[in-house]
UniProtKB/TrEMBL annotation, chains A, B, C, D:
Residue ranges constituting the GFO/IDH/MocA-like oxidoreductase domain according to the UniProt record: 140-288
InterPro entries: Gfo/Idh/MocA-like_OxRdtase_N, Gfo/Idh/MocA_oxidrdct_glycsds, GFO_IDH_MocA-like_dom, NAD(P)-bd_dom_sf
Superkingdom classification of source: Bacteria
Protein name per Swiss-Prot or TrEMBL: Dehydrogenase
Keyword vocabulary terms for this entry: Oxidoreductase
Species, as recorded: Mesobacillus campisalis
GO terms for MF: nucleotide binding; oxidoreductase activity
Domain Gfo/Idh/MocA-like oxidoreductase N-terminal stretches: 4-130
């Protein structure tokens, strides 16, 4: 069976998730499109890179991502580094003719994303952005219902992504709170997942009207090097603080090309919400509701159910729903974060071996950057911003 | 024990709810501030009025509301008629020196509401608007937490009111779909309850930015006289249809005087949502979540809970929470719609006998009308509308 | 319209619930079978009785229940006194030719219940036992599904009634903890509601096999006279304690005549459970689940739903479900404890005016006592007890 | 870093789960106790075995499990075959001095389990039974609360395991319905997981009193070789059926050594329940509730919470709860079935490298077999069966 060699740039939280997916994908989807081989992992120091290779099951390690990109044995470059490094790596990888999967958000803004898209278009490689949540089987099931017309024309979409890991003012100022590295705050970090849901399930967004807030204006400087997502507190008397220059919370109204309307909200300051990535969609013939915190379930209500037995059904995904052929043999054995990445890897490897387009790809990543830029512009100006059809102006 | 005579104008769904409250209030809150006496009920025909009196337990009936208003035996006028009649009746009742409770929304717009407020201010009577949902014990408990500082400074508010009784295009064109009678659609009918929650729990609203949609532009003309809320379908080959000129759905962003921000959404076209009146509030020290469909429960998360036992608590209201002294002796015996009205009646009678202000009163009703007007204006103009401090310009 | 005069014996928590139902029933169900007239209420002292009349809206009061029973104006005797007084009052009322509604459990045991049944059979009056929970619309909907064969032959039933008001060892020793007054503990007080559900929904019980426990063997003697259900604590240094001689918790396995099997559990020592009266029923063609704490909802799963949209539906009761013609016009406006009693009153008045049998009546109450006795016998002996077909041996 | 070579006997559903765990464990728990190396996988034919090796990432494959057991390179034998083969393989592996992890239930009955236990005791190897559900972080958190006394002395336990994959009479007669292969039905297959919860969380079981039912007495003979858990239907006109000789459903009452009491229920015929593995535990100071279908969450109620903020907390497991150091950095990123197996592997490898006892081991597996045997005996005899202290009589 064909094997594809992966060079992974970065060995943190996302590196772990992707590595599990490379190892597990063929166990779930068999015959696999190709076997992922963990060839080389890159981290910033020799020590970290060596450790990552041992931990994540890579055969080799390196501290020089350019070397890896140019290694002829490598088929796929997997970019799981902070946002500000995505563009440089991806463009170089494209030039080197490697297929690319890049963590989200794609770039620090639309301009940068456009360059990345141009690069992959020019080289003809496959390109993917890791908005993995849309691969939750329950979200794929929602897509199936919508495509089959089972909830009718969509009227409205409400999406949220609420977390609380930065609600504590003593949680450290990681790179996620610094504009030059992260691009934006809650918007780019988590809000873009909701934008991806909106585009995937409803359609193209044409206009946005937003508000943003930075609730905690300065945070303790992080002393350790690793992104701890706020779980390590750096408070105390003599802590050094620095400014936060990204949004803690964003709320936006959106209009869709097909006439639907909606709201998108994201915050990392919502006490008690952990990974509360939700949507509710109302259609002319039914409704859908999803909450990633209970990700095995999709709620669906069909308008034409008998009036004495109408109501939201709690459908547990499993063998009878999308990706069911590969996943666990009984619903609610349980989809975890790992499984969403396994599915993503499966679809990526299928796209590569079958030479089809992966979705979401850099085009989607670019459009999402345009939308994110428009959201920030709208919040600043206090008015609607039109996206001039937020699609791709790159051939 | 003191008795207060009620003259109730209207004998429909709301008349039933209020009548149950008059009968039941002293059973729950004892000693009662005063005993409500169902003196006279008014309906449009002799037959309807007579029937209403028998059904709702009134001693007398009438078809002439002016006569009832001027009856010196009557202490309180209860207005449970369609929205377009509120102003005339209330102003007359105020002039006649009667205390007034008026169903929501108070008026067809801010201008009319202002006149009503001026009238009650001039006469010195007690005035109440029946936003009863804030009297759900779980909502009162949320208010208590907030006032006691238990969730800290409020950052954001998200409120929705979703129903589905008009999602079917064949549900009849009742008065609720006609601007001249209802003033607005989902906004006035149900959205104003969310506005009431927002002001009650968070504070004054200063700016709004909205979208509205009329999803179903015409509906079958209703043949019967009674408001059936869409449960009677009038479809068929030869049905006569007429235009809907109010909103089916409204989405608005809001800014609060205290710096909080939020969204308010209301629709009657959300399949599967019945009386989905919800809020979620994030504060610096905790979060609250409420859904009227499960109205015995308030969800609260406290930031300072131990890290291995932190999460939303599902608190069932009962003897230990607001109004618990009067309600059922065990939590979850069950709060229904009736109980919310019983509490409202209790607070109204207390305000009258103790000569204090009832809240929400016509001032609140007026401010809510200003906000509703601003929401419609914002939706039309596609921009933020400032409320010039949405408080009362009536002395 | 016909009027039926009620004499109510007892003015406590249950008296309040019944009084609200008498006042409210015609407001919901119109034309009413007959108008309930609150004629006379009885309590133990003149002061209490007078107060009850004012509070509950009765025209008259008395301290002598025999006098009321023999008052020719009275049509219905409503018994809402502690369990040990039911038999004497009911038998006297039957002899006086009055229709009777008696709170549950019917008696202190099967023997006493049999005498009560014989009395009402002899006199030909209507007789009802107030297992009101089966009148929750969602429970009536479950019955409808079962009768229409929509979940097929029933395989198993699991019912629980969990509360926590007596989990605190300092909650007072009310009459509910004294065998001579209450008959039994959690079993009679709340477990019998589950037995009523089991018989109502599944069928006759033939065998039981039980365990009981008294977790808290002594409690503070109650100083006030009123049953406070544990919400008033009597703890402290010098508190006088006395023995509890009833069960705090009961678990029983049951076999049904139709081959189904199940469990019934009841406890008042389950921290965090308030009025957690639940059932889950599995049939050959579907399943049902209900939790009174969320009583507007019935969960139902149909086996023949499409495999990609199968799951429990959350059906909110309303206009399209049983009793919907009388209740609130939108689902989830809200069923409270009051509404269950209003429906019970409606069905009782219909039985009286239409001369049909009310269910559950004294036959059911007697059978439930037999089952309760068998449960206690089983727990004591540690073995299955057969009920020799737990039906009625009274002609 | 130390490496341990695994020989896995069996390549089906469970083989997949274990293989994912071997690959993923070091990614989560680092430094790992030792690196699992997938050395050899065994299946019944050369074709299946070769396929399994490629799919599951093993270096070698074999059709001869004895050969693998005797391979000196192998450190650990992993038994993921049907129940009737466990004993022979495990005893041979013990004699060969290999550490053993065996899928549950350990054996076809207590007698066989005893022999297995004797074998591992004699050889001194580490031994584990794969009751993986107790490694769900939320279950481990429940254990932590209990051990820290946070819910006080335990009064009662209610556990269920409900599935619906065999509710359809046309689901095939896999080995799971044949006594000679499976030992028992729902009891051994899933009920034993609940028994494991009961012993893990509450303590030793001393007495059982049970009922069992075989609802569907014959099923279509399975034509394919692979266990499809009922998802492939074999119905049709000319289907060949054969008898089911195991239980479809089991209900048992249990008594614990420490005075607690409870119920355990298991069925694979509960429409709409997928992997509904639940427990509810009431203690003197609090309560716990868990449902594996929502496995990221543990419900806990503390009796000493303030009376106006008391209720079940929904705690999402994550960095602050057991195993949080290794799992995902934010709660609700999501625990799936894979993660439970990764944790199990971690604890097994730790036990091996640190020379401590793994729990649950063959002693536990043996005790659970004794309990299962007692449950079947009780159901047959219709009476309580005492377990003579269900602990281990093997030195």
């Amino acid at each position: 069976m064909k094997k594809l060699n992966v060079g992974m740039i970065g060995g943190g939280f996302m590196g772990k998730a992707h590595s599990l997916a490379y190892a597990g994908m063929p166990m779930f989807f068999w015959p696999a499109p190709a076997i992922p081989h963990r060839h080389t992992v890159v981290d910033v120091t020799e020590e970290l890179a060596k450790d990552a290779a041992a931990r994540l099951g890579f055969d080799n390690y390196s501290t020089d991502w350019r070397e890896v990109i140019n290694n002829p044995e490598i088929d796929i470059i997997d970019i799981v580094t902070p946002n500000n490094t995505h563009a440089e790596i991806a463009i170089a990888a494209a030039k080197a003719g490697k297929h690319i999967i890049c963590e989200k958000p794609l770039a620090l803004g639309a301009e940068q994303a456009k360059e990345m898209l141009e690069a992959v278009k020019a080289s003809g490689v496959k390109h993917a952005v890791a908005f993995n949540y849309r691969r939750t089987p329950a979200v794929a099931l929602a897509k199936k219902y919508i495509e089959e017309g089972r909830i009718g024309k969509i009227l409205s979409f409400r999406g949220t992504y609420l977390q609380d890991w930065s609600a504590d003012p003593n949680s450290p100022l990681s790179w996620r709170f610094q504009k030059k590295i992260a691009g934006s705050g809650a918007l780019g970090d988590i809000g873009t997942h909701v934008v991806d849901f909106a585009r995937y399930l409803v359609g193209e967004i044409t206009d946005v009207n937003a508000m943003t807030k930075t609730w905690i204006s300065e945070r303790p400087v992080q002393t350790g090097g690793i992104d701890k997502l706020g779980t390590v507190k750096n408070g105390g008397e003599d802590v050094v603080k620095a400014s936060v220059d990204v949004d803690d919370e964003v709320i936006t109204m959106v209009k869709f090309e097909n006439g639907a309307m909606g709201t998108i909200e994201a915050t990392r300051n919502a006490w008690g919400r952990n990974n509360f990535l939700t949507f509710e969609i109302h259609g002319e013939k039914g409704s859908l509701a999803f909450n990633y915190e209970r990700r095995d379930e999709l709620q669906v209500c069909f308008a034409d159910d008998p009036s004495d037995a109408k109501g939201f059904r709690t459908v547990y995904t499993g063998p009878a729903t999308p990706y069911g052929e590969g996943l666990w043999p009984i619903p609610a054995l349980g989809i975890g974060y790992g499984e969403t990445k396994i599915i993503e890897t499966y679809d990526l490897f299928k796209a590569i071996t079958e030479d089809t387009e992966f979705s979401p790809n850099f085009e989607d990543g670019y459009v999402i950057e345009k939308i994110a830029d428009a959201i920030l512009e709208s919040a600043e100006k206090g008015q609607w911003v039109n996206l001039e059809k937020a699609t791709v102006d790159v051939k």
